[in-house]
């Protein structure tokens, strides 16, 4: 190994124990494509578990702070149960009518909003530092520490149930520490995936891969709702154990980069040649392993063209998305649908249709942006379409269960589409900008800046909702529609540039096609 490599690079250039075991069993080196499959699967599971752990709070909210005298918690998967079921049919393990102090008081909704703020504020701040550290540490170790730490503090929140903890500051501190460890996830997984996959069809590939967010939200909702009948503490402990376990898988299996496992694309192509024109296996950044690369500074990363407008757009996009993430189950449980109120468990299950729509929206946004080669136009179009979707969901979602599900699905598609696009393909695009001159040590920093800025909006949205919802849910939806509008407007300059580029490209192609015709006439 060249002496020019720094300690971080020397530490990364060691195959994980699990990779060495697989190669020992197969008695040959794993192919480049096999490593790519491992990266996609492991990072998908890793970030899905992050979101599963993050989602539990929204499911338990209406249990900690019940708004009616009768709250049904009998859970049967996908079966509709209502809050006005006879008391003798309910199976509970604590006094539901009283909620859980201190969240059962008149200011309980505001306290829950403050928990969201604490978690997301620390998450946003930690995101900036995590990106900075991630470009300077072994990402496999860094991600493992973050996942195990997240599991510990998520579980400690649930331990408050059995320990009979009613001190608000206990839950506040635990949430803040959970947010700090959660911030390690996104910059790390995007940086690892970015080192293994090329620009060709990046939007589509990352759109599909980004389904981990919705899969995590859905699985977190189902697990938390299922565990409520055994005591709300289990709704936190079980996801905490899951993410800690997957963190160990990350430590054993995740190859941080092709250099870390000695994977050579050229050698792999000799074994299984690609078709002409295929570039899926080409890494985002082709760097010389013998040349020491300096990590990009925080201010320098902000100056990369496109980083600031997309980061600010994500601020408002995540404000909308995370308000739904943290408050949608609560909103459903407090809204009479077809004249009936749904139980906590059923409300949590129903809210997963928003995330199903998010999966479709993320894939569509990635595919459309690839076909158009226009990230800003795609993201802004989805944000503008989210405005009428939000209006119709608030205005007509209560008329029937079927209409609520359909409108929720459509809203999730338009809200999560640009969010998924910006945090994946756009971050990877900007993290490999030509101004970086092939530096592979910038992906985590750029990703952290964009998602960290977005996370500030993610903290503000749920906080404001906690206060505004006590007076009017219509005002909450007005706030979300205004945020979606601002998110689209922030990309106006980039949209103009993309349109101008398309026009210039069209004219260039037109003049090129006319030239041969003129030659034939001569």
TrEMBL record:
* Molecular function via GO: transmembrane transporter activity
Subcellular location, record wording: Membrane
Q: Which residues form the Major facilitator superfamily (MFS) profile domain?
A: 41-500
Q: Which InterPro entries match?
A: MFS (IPR011701), MFS_dom (IPR020846), Sugar_P_transporter (IPR000849)
Query: Which keywords does this chain's UniProt record carry?
Result: Membrane, Sugar transport, Transmembrane, Transmembrane helix, Transport
> Which residues, by range, are in coiled-coil regions?
none
In residue numbers, the region (Disordered) covers: 264-283
Q: To which species is this protein native? A: Populus tomentosa (Chinese white poplar)
User: Which family does the record assign?
Assistant: Belongs to the major facilitator superfamily. Organophosphate:Pi antiporter (OPA) (TC 2.A.1.4) family.
Q: Name one GO biological process term.
A: phosphate ion homeostasis
User: Chief location of this protein?
Assistant: membrane
Instruction: Give the membrane topology, semicolon-separated if more than one.
Output: Multi-pass membrane protein
Any one annotated GO CC term: membrane
Which protein are we looking at? Answer: Major facilitator superfamily (MFS) profile domain-containing protein
């Amino acid at each position: 190994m060249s002496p020019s490599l720094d300690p971080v690079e020397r530490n990364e250039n060691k195959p994980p124990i699990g990779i060495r075991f697989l190669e020992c069993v197969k008695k040959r080196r794993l192919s480049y494509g096999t490593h790519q499959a491992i990266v996609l699967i492991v990072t998908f599971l890793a970030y899905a578990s992050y979101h599963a752990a993050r989602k539990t709070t929204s499911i338990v909210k209406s249990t900690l702070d019940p708004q009616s005298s009768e709250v049904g918690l009998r859970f049967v998967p996908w079966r509709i149960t209502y809050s006005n079921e006879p008391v003798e049919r309910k199976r509970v393990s604590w006094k539901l009518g009283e909620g859980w102090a201190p969240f059962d008081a008149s200011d309980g909704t505001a306290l829950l909003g403050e928990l969201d703020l604490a978690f997301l504020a620390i998450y946003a701040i930690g995101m900036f530092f995590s990106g900075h550290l991630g470009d300077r540490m072994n990402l496999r170790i860094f991600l493992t520490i973050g996942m195990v730490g997240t599991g510990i503090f998520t579980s400690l929140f649930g331990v408050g149930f059995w320990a009979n903890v009613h001190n608000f500051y206990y839950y506040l501190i635990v949430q803040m520490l959970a947010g700090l460890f959660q911030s390690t996830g996104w910059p790390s997984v995007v940086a690892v995936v970015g080192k293994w996959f090329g620009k060709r069809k990046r939007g589509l590939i990352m759109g599909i891969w980004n389904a981990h967010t919705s899969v995590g939200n859905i699985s977190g909702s189902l697990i938390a709702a299922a565990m409520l009948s055994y005591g709300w503490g289990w709704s936190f402990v079980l996801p905490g154990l899951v993410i800690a376990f997957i963190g160990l898988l990350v430590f054993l299996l995740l190859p941080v980069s092709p250099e870390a496992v000695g994977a050579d694309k050229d050698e792999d192509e000799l074994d299984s040649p690609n078709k002409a024109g295929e570039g899926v296996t080409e890494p985002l950044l082709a760097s010389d392993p013998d040349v020491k690369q300096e990590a990009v500074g925080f201010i320098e990363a902000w100056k990369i063209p496109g980083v600031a407008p997309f980061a600010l757009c994500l601020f408002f996009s995540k404000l909308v998305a995370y308000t739904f993430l943290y408050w949608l189950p609560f909103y459903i449980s407090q809204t009479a649908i077809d004249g009936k109120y749904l139980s906590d468990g059923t409300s949590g299950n129903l809210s997963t249709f928003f995330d199903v729509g998010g999966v479709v929206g993320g894939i569509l946004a990635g595919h459309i942006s690839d076909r158009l080669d226009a990230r800003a136009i795609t993201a802004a179009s989805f944000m503008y379409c989210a405005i009428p979707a939000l209006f119709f969901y608030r205005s007509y979602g209560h008329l029937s269960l079927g209409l609520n599900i359909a409108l929720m699905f459509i809203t999730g598609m338009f809200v999560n589409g640009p969010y998924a696009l910006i945090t994946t393909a756009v971050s990877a695009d900007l993290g490999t900008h030509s101004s970086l001159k092939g530096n592979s040590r910038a992906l985590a920093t750029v990703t952290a800046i964009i998602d960290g800025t977005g996370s500030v909006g993610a903290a503000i949205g749920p906080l404001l909702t906690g206060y505004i919802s006590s007076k009017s849910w219509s005002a909450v939806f007005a706030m979300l529609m205004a945020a979606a509008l601002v998110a689209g407007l922030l990309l106006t300059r980039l949209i103009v540039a993309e349109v101008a580029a398309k026009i210039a490209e069209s004219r260039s192609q037109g003049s090129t096609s006319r030239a041969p015709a003129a030659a034939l006439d001569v």
